[in-house]
Amino acid sequence: MTTTQPILQLDHLGMTFPGHPVFNDLTLTVHQGDFWSIVGENGVGKTTLMRTILHQLRPTTGTVRYLPGVNAVKIGYVPQFRNIDPEYPLTIRDFIGLNLTGWKLPWLSRRERQRVTQILHETGLDRLATRPIGQASGGEKQKAYLAQALVEQPNLLILDESTASLDPVTKTELLDLVTTLNRDLQLTVLFVTHDIPLARKYSQHYLMLTPHGTEQGAIAELTDQKVWRGERV
Ligand SMILES: Nc1ncnc2c1ncn2[C@@H]1O[C@H](COP(=O)(O)OP(=O)(O)OP(=O)(O)O)[C@@H](O)[C@H]1O
């Protein structure tokens, strides 16, 4: 049973793009320290939902509320894999530091530099700190995005299929780190994924989007049969 306070409340949320309903009447309460997996077939609306939660999109109906107040919730967002121009001039260290300076480099305080060093270490990027980010591999870039999201010490982390391009060992390392932060610092996690075994291994709750509605519950209730039905009907 969850005993922590709610930090995110979706009430009767609906989103329709012109002529194209995506989700409807979605009500969800996320408590501090929860680890949710958001699952469902391609194009069902998972990223749209995350963008609505981030206030990048306005819902057609319903509300997104942060409790007890928007200022109390700091969100880290790790997007789906995005390539970076090989000529992009920043090193991995500088790229991670961007989130501390409001994207004005290179003026990091000593404390901020220490924080970047710490997160480089935690995400296993120490050795690559001075490599231009444009020359990093896909998985290394993805780790750098995670490090960038974590450097500000968010209390809500949104992972939008951010582990999809990683090899199994790196995937496990990064999700183990997120799990440690979830357990020790009550980091709340929304993990958008197509990887059901990974969802089962790491999260406590699931939200499944289907073309016909949404379903939520304890992760143990997310049976293969349910996934199959959700993705095929
Ligand atoms: N700005 C937009 N305008 C119109 N339609 C959009 C817009 N953004 C997304 N869509 C459509 O909304 C639907 C949901 O897209 P979304 O990216 O949220 O799906 P998803 O579940 O994240 O998919 P995937 O698993 O493939 O990443 C898709 O049909 C998409 O084409």
TrEMBL record:
Family annotation (InterPro entries): AAA+_ATPase, ABC_transporter-like_ATP-bd, Metal_Ion_Import_ABC, P-loop_NTPase
Protein name: ABC-type Mn Zn transport system, ATPase component
Domain of life: Bacteria
PROSITE patterns in the record: ABC_TRANSPORTER_2
A GO MF term: ATP hydrolysis activity
Transmembrane segments: none
All copies of domain ABC transporter, residue ranges: 8-233
Record PANTHER family: METAL TRANSPORT SYSTEM ATP-BINDING PROTEIN TM_0124-RELATED (PTHR42734)
UniProt keywords, alphabetically: ATP-binding, Nucleotide-binding, Transport
